[in-house]
């Protein structure tokens, strides 16, 4: 309803009542205006009615929703199913144009606006989460591994001689494959054991760079969020090495947005040295369906180059989901979740410590890992791998997902390379990422032992 239509309404309903209605609408519109003017995540979450109003306003700006639109091209935002149209709030055109995922589409002003606003709101949240000097970012409708691939492919043009990626080891397949798929050879740098922690071997990184020659190296590919007993890479030292040898630095920050420590590492790395881009998953950090990531960095033009590498148009769904989520939560709601996760982590840590003590096991001392915990399973049955595997399945049947119980020396194969998961320990690994909810329900019978308290039932949202 605009002013004219409110005026016409007064012929049917008393003017005073219509005025109240107009005032009501104005309340929603002021929120929309603040978002459009500032491009920031609103402090307080919006009501669903405001969000729906906003999405409908965006949708009717797109040509597929123009009344009497006669699309005579091959890509006119046609959908056969009303269910599909509603699932996407009638935003059918996607984002980007053939040359650039961040480009505006003339026939889809609403979708283009959605795309720009999402990137701007997400940038605001990255700052709020601890990387204050980030200058540019974009949501890309691919998960983390493929988004890392896109970063490596962008660097290829800048470093035509480069064949290698220096990669402090992390036993996660998609980050390994992100380099292989881009056509580069990962140079695995083994971590060093310091106390219980597996940490970046800085000397080995530097020695490898010298041995291979800086110009033959595409980049250093480091990792923040990871399973204990590995801890986040020494980002500051790596960033300094990258600056000294003039080598790009790409950071895999898969589930690090929710950890102020991981974000602080990125901020510090960029302050003292070189970080070209950092990549984070949408589902792991923002509680949306799998399918998107954020590529962010400190040099706006490099981030734009990456967005221009993306061939063709792209799905708007990941952008839409994260925008709806952040508008619903508001900055205050997201901050609250970050705070709760931190509290849950110390609760989980102290509870696991008690549990480990009770059973003559050890909670590994991994203070540099702000997200993940590891507990030994030495006495579960030292000579029986089956018991450890069984613990994993017991947790699973008790609806605990996300925990891993690892038998010493398990191997997995990625593209002809064997990965040994961990050194010399049977471990139970628990993460508090993705906003874990810990319920106080004890589970009886786990470990075939007496009732344990406190034990935790972990459940993801
Ligand atoms: C999730 C994750 C990835 C990427 O996985 P995608 O399925 O591509 O999102 C990479 N590295 C780590 C450490 C991860 O946790």
Automatic annotation (TrEMBL):
Substrate binds at residues 97-98, 105, 313. GO terms for biological process: conversion of seryl-tRNAsec to selenocys-tRNAsec; selenocysteine incorporation. The modification N6-(pyridoxal phosphate)lysine is found at residue 284. Signal peptide: none annotated. GO terms for molecular function: O-phosphoseryl-tRNA(Sec) selenium transferase activity; tRNA binding. SMART domains: LRR_TYP (SM00369). Its cofactor is pyridoxal 5'-phosphate. It is found in: Cytoplasm. The record marks 74 as: May act as a substrate filter by repelling compounds with a negatively charged alpha-carboxylate. Its EC number is 2.9.1.2. Pathway: Aminoacyl-tRNA biosynthesis; selenocysteinyl-tRNA(Sec) biosynthesis; selenocysteinyl-tRNA(Sec) from L-seryl-tRNA(Sec) (archaeal/eukaryal route): step 2/2. Belongs to the SepSecS family. This is O-phosphoseryl-tRNA(Sec) selenium transferase. The lineage of its organism: Eukaryota, Metazoa, Chordata, Craniata, Vertebrata.
């Amino acid at each position: 309803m605009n002013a004219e239509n409110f005026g016409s309404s007064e012929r049917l309903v008393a003017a005073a009542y219509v005025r109240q209605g107009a005032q009501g609408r104005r309340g929603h519109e002021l929120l929309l205006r603040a978002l459009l003017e500032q491009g920031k995540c609103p402090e307080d979450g919006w009501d669903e009615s405001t969000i729906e109003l906003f999405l409908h306003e965006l949708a009717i700006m797109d040509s597929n929703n123009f009344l009497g639109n006669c699309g005579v091209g091959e890509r006119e935002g046609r959908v056969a199913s009303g269910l599909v149209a509603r699932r996407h709030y009638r935003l059918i055109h996607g984002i980007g144009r053939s040359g650039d995922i961040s480009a505006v589409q003339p026939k889809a002003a609403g979708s283009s606006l959605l795309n720009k606003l999402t990137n701007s709101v997400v940038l605001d949240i990255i700052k709020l989460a601890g990387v204050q000097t980030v200058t540019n970012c974009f949501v890309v409708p691919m998960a983390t591994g493929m988004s890392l691939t896109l970063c490596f492919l962008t660097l290829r043009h800048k470093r035509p001689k480069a064949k290698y990626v220096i990669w402090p080891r992390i036993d996660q397949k998609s980050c390994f494959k992100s380099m292989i798929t881009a056509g580069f050879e990962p140079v695995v740098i083994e971590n060093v054991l310091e106390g219980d922690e597996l940490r970046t071997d800085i000397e080995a990184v530097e020695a490898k760079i010298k041995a291979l020659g800086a110009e033959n190296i595409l980049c250093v590919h480091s990792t923040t969020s990871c399973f204990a007993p590995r801890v986040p890479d020494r980002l500051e030292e790596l960033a300094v090495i990258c600056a000294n040898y003039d080598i790009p630095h790409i950071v895999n920050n898969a589930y690090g947005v929710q950890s102020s420590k991981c974000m602080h590492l990125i901020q510090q790395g960029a302050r003292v040295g070189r970080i070209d881009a950092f990549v984070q998953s949408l589902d792991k950090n923002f509680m949306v369906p799998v399918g998107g990531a954020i590529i962010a960095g400190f040099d706006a033009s490099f981030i734009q180059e990456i967005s221009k590498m993306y061939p063709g148009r792209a799905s708007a769904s990941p952008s839409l989901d994260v925008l709806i989520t952040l508008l619903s939560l508001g900055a205050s709601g997201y901050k609250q979740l970050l705070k709760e996760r931190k509290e849950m982590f110390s609760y989980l840590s102290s509870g696991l410590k008690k549990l480990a003590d009770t059973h003559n096991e050890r909670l590994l001392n991994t203070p540099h890992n702000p997200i993940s915990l590891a507990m030994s399973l030495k006495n579960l049955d030292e000579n029986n791998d089956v018991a450890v595997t069984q613990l994993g399945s017991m947790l699973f049947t008790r609806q605990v997902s996300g925990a891993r119980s690892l038998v010493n020396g398990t191997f997995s194969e990625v593209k002809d390379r064997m990965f040994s998961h961990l050194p010399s320990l049977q471990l139970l690994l628990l993460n508090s990422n993705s906003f874990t909810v810990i319920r106080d329900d004890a589970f009886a019978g786990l470990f075939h032992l007496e009732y344990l308290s406190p034990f935790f039932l972990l459940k993801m949202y």
